[in-house]
Amino acid sequence: MMMEGLVTNYVEYLNMGLKLVQPSGGAHSKTSLTGVPVGPDMSGMEKMWNIFSAIGDIAFAYSFSLVLLEIQDTLKSSPSENKVMKKASTIGVAVSTLLYTLCGVLGYAAFGNDASGNYLTGFGFYEPFWLIDIGNMCVVLHLLGAYQVLIQPFFAFVEDWSHKKWPESRFIEKEYYIGSYSLNLFRLTWRTMYVIIVTIVAMIFPFFNSFLGLIGAATYWPLTVYFPIEMYISQAKIQRGCFTWIWLKILSLTCLIVALLAAAGSIRGLAVSVSDFELFHSMS
């Protein structure tokens, strides 16, 4: 997990380096205080939908709560795990917020209203080429680690269900041992096919921003806000109707509204993109 975090931060540093190169090279893009101006190319309604979709992109950056318990399970019992995780989460969220804020601000300073959703693929701008190549390699390393961590609960669910459904199947149950490693043909086959199918689907429908926003909107409120708040209320035995309970509920409701707006913007973006997309063509 530490290596994963280092690679993620390195990607952001490279992104910021790319954005610093553009203005320093003398290129100045059109900018405005409120972003893309409303005009012939963009209506007020279109801008509103894009803002909602962007909120989903931001929410995606904070969907880390899925792996917090797995990380906490790897900590020693002294000092207390909850104290260590509180400190780690505070530092992690602060650093992530700083990096992503710098990424957005520098990106807007460099590319203005033409800023793309994916700075590594969204422009005809590929200089310095070595910085782009290193950035893309770091993205691959980052996704390899993140994919393995985040998809494990789904893999475990499917495999547990299959074991219960077909307990007599040798294909599902048989384990082959190679030294200290075990190999299961069902696990190898279905996981490989899943990754291949998901990768092909992602390449066929490459709506980077809209998909990212939809995933962020779908996971942000229930996993990052609602369940942690409800668990805290239960664990701390906060009385219903008291001041703390009311404000926690208001926080949860506010985040739900934000998530719904983000989901609406992302779904609308997908619907618009589907009407004129080309297979395997980036729609960043």
From TrEMBL:
Coiled-coil regions listed: none
Compartments, record wording: Membrane
All copies of domain Amino acid transporter transmembrane, residue ranges: 28-270
Gene Ontology BP, a term: amino acid transmembrane transport
Residues passing through the membrane, by range: 48-69, 90-111, 131-158, 188-208, 214-233, 245-267
Superkingdom assignment: Eukaryota
GO molecular function, one term: amino acid transmembrane transporter activity
Transmembrane found in the keyword field: yes
GO cellular-component term (any): membrane
InterPro entries: AA_transpt_TM (IPR013057)
UniProt main location, coarse: membrane
Pfam families per record: Aa_trans
UniProt keywords, alphabetically: Amino-acid transport, Membrane, Transmembrane, Transmembrane helix, Transport
Entry protein name: Amino acid transporter transmembrane domain-containing protein
